[in-house]
Amino acid sequence: MRLNNQHLLITGGAQGIGEAIVINAAKEGARVSFVDIDDDLSNALVKSLVDQGYQVQFQHGDVSKFETFKVAFDKLTATYGPVTVAVSNAGRNSYADPVEYADEEWESFFALDLKSTWYIAKLCLPEMRKAHKGAIVNIASIHGRMTSPNFFPYSAAKHGIVGMTRNLALDEAKNGIRVNSVSPGYTLTPLLKGYFEQFPEAAANAVAVQPMGRVGLPEEIAKVVTFVLSDEASFINGADLMVDGGLHARYAS
Ligand SMILES: NC(=O)c1ccc[n+]([C@@H]2O[C@H](COP(=O)([O-])OP(=O)(O)OC[C@H]3O[C@@H](n4cnc5c(N)ncnc54)[C@H](O)[C@@H]3O)[C@@H](O)[C@H]2O)c1
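Above: inputs. Below: predicted complex with nicotinamide-adenine-dinucleotide.
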């Protein structure tokens, strides 16, 4: 029970990596709150976990908009108390042409893929500082260190998350709060399935380049996130943990 007595807040918990984190954290003893825009998936997940005796709640909210996020946050903390551990997970891919890309598209993309990571810290840090204890994990990506063609400007947002994580880690350590990022490689979620549908040639290649001969599973990311949030990782701070089956170690040949 690595997260006993913890209240975990996560963005984008309805499916994919977020859903796996919700499930793993609940099984590790946490009270889990999540914010998502997909009501049907979220309600189904909450029902299934509550039916099994776990403490999980959801509020609808677009985490790329601070006021909307805060309304959901206030409701979730009113029932489960202050957030003690948090995960910034919600994000989407981008395959834009830098010439065609519109200003509004840039604003909306970075509001989700970068700014919401600041928002969750902004909301959770006050109570963590008061408690002089807390841990935050930001889900970045292998694209936070390198990238592949046709992903503009996804890699810029993920590099931003890794950088923001370092800023927060250095500044909050004196407050007893650890901040790290976890960077998945290819992970089998609805997001990745959508990418493979849009670019079928990428699917075969994505497996062919894997040192371990397969892509990752959401549960394999979730277990690392739970560990990093827990006291077992008490001296891990400002790190970016790659969970990619060794893909980033590979020279392109
Ligand atoms: N799947 C991969 O291969 C992979 C690899 C590296 C990094 N990542 C990162 O992991 C994170 C999760 O990815 P995933 O593959 O599970 O994605 P996913 O699309 O399968 O799930 C994303 C979840 O976020 C929610 N969401 C989307 N926009 C939101 C918003 N504005 N407000 C609140 N919730 C919102 C969705 O409803 C969904 O439940 C993302 O940050 C992604 O960039 C994924």
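The longest helix spans residues 103-131.
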